[in-house]
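fyi for ur records
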Amino acid sequence: MGYLIMAGQLFLSLSILIVLHEMGHFFPARWFKTRVEKFYLFFDPWFSLFKIKKGETEYGIGWLPLGGYVKISGMIDESMDREQMAGPPQPWEFRSKPAWQRLIIMLGGVTVNFILGFFLYGMVLWTWGEEFLPTQNVKYGIAVSKLGEDMGLRDGDQVLAVNGRQLTEFGDNQVRREIVINNAKSLEIERDGQKMTLPIDPKFVQVLSSYASKDEGLYGVRMPFVIGRIAPKTPAADADFKLKDRIIGVNGQPTAYYHEFSKMVVPLKNKAIKVTVLRNQKDTVIVPVTTTAEGKIGVASYEPAYYFKIERKDYTLGQALPAGVVKGVAFLGDQVKAFGQMFKGKIKASESLGGFASIATMFGDVWDWERFWRMTAVLSLILAFMNLLPIPALDGGHVMFLLYEIVSGRKPSDKFMEYATIVGFIIVIGLVLFANGLDIFRIFK
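which gave:
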């Protein structure tokens, strides 16, 4: 069921983005009295799932979900309509329009995607606001993963800054970003009451950007284990556990914090264990219980808000919209820097790229509207950015040739544009196959 939810979210998100992107081409074309022959969601080689003709335009849904398109009369595109281009230019055709009008038509799609991405970021802030755990409120320090240990972090550390940039909000996302995108060289931490600088090995740029590390954090919040939920029909439900019991040990070994309990119990699959709990903040009780085949007993801790003061920032509409632009611009800046890191060889394309399966997992296996719209904003900006790349067959390729025409006063020949579009189309299909091939390889690896 989880896979269906992820696929459904991806399908809906891409459908929205594709339709709006193509509208960005469609409406300027119509404003400049350019004929639009087709408007399609998804591609329709050989046949379409649905089509209807209104006026001079055929609207439809294709069966190949790799994008969408509008077919504009007199424009050399992936349709390769040589017969139409062989005739003399007609007043309603794209090739008959002034270069500035053609430029606006070609920029329409990415313009819509940029605006939509900024707008959705703003709407998410306006609707849901932001909740965060201030770094100064993390009184027990961090719980470190194996990856964090390799970097030199230890349980109980306080991470204060990365490369001199203070971390006011708790979490490792900012640390990962600074290392991967900005080549951060050091972390400022507090350990056992002493502040110190922890150097970062340059190898972690590739390590943190690799597919194998994408779901492994550097650290999380270290917190006690006070039982907030006992799942029915589990070993814990039949044992003598109570809500608000604080788990402090397993088999005589102290486990002061949640992650310590997990590390100790997960390997003990189908084992009888003795859990020490502190009840009513004064009584120590030993609770016998048998773990499941997954190394669990069926209890869950309270959320971090039970242990720490969480802060919240709400936005008015007037505050949310500019804040959305700021977040969107920062995201685009990171994409540009990430491309730079790839060209420098610091990030491996084969490790950091992914296809539709990788994108789908980013939506999560539970339908969460806040996450859905945030991901749709991200994908809208990525779609705009990728379409602006100067590759023939993409909007950026057409824009590149139009700018050349405007500056030089010379229009590339139709034959040149035809060959360039073929080459560009092959490049784009190759990239799509490469990215999705990586997903397939990872599944069977």
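The first helix runs from residue 2 to 31. thats all i got for now
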